[in-house]
């Protein structure tokens, strides 16, 4: 009898060890897939932080004895945890729609027990590009949340999705994952959708700089078929009078922000060389921000 019990114990221990080994192997495989998705390193690392439960949501901070409010800083209506900020907050579904990946939400939100399950499921069962878009969207949503906490400024959910889509498309183009003609079409379609929801067309006005400053508008151009990138810049004074303009063309790959930065550099060098002005304001469309520069 004792011999039989020993054999049963040995068999049970072996089965337990085999099961643990399989689970460990499966877990390593799931974690490994996070690093193989098509996304910038910051987005992959952000997924890792979420899955390791390192994201400092207010509920997590309170569970670790940090004195802070529980309410979500964006809606001020519900406690803030991972699931709420990425899936349940107000109209956040519009961000997923603008990114073009809302189809992965509905079947999985009911199946997955946690956001880590959701991330692992997406990384394991969808293609690397879709998983990469998801990662960058989650990162962008969190940046918007932080911007509200620290700067009291937040974007509409659809703007978040469009921003994430543009960032992923630019990254994909640089890494040869997206053809040049694909990227603008996707963004045009999303912009058209936004425009249709407004009462009238959006009108952009040129605003003059302060007296004594020049305003520099810059832009970037892409010619992937020829493997070249370019940019353009234009200077006007506080009365709107044309002062100077220029263009450049180089070989290689640049994203929109880098292309505009190169154009700005060309403008600054030209102004310094000519001694046209000592102060300049400039606008980077990819950052949607005005900056001042003093030479």
TrEMBL record:
The organism of origin for this protein: Trifolium medium
PANTHER family: BNAC02G40300D PROTEIN (PTHR47074), REVERSE TRANSCRIPTASE-LIKE PROTEIN (PTHR47074:SF11)
Protein name: Ribonuclease H protein
Chain coiled-coil ranges: none
Pfam families xrefs: zf-RVT
InterPro entries xref list: RNase_H-like_EbsB-rel, RVT-Znf
Domain (Reverse transcriptase zinc-binding): residue spans on this chain: 24-96
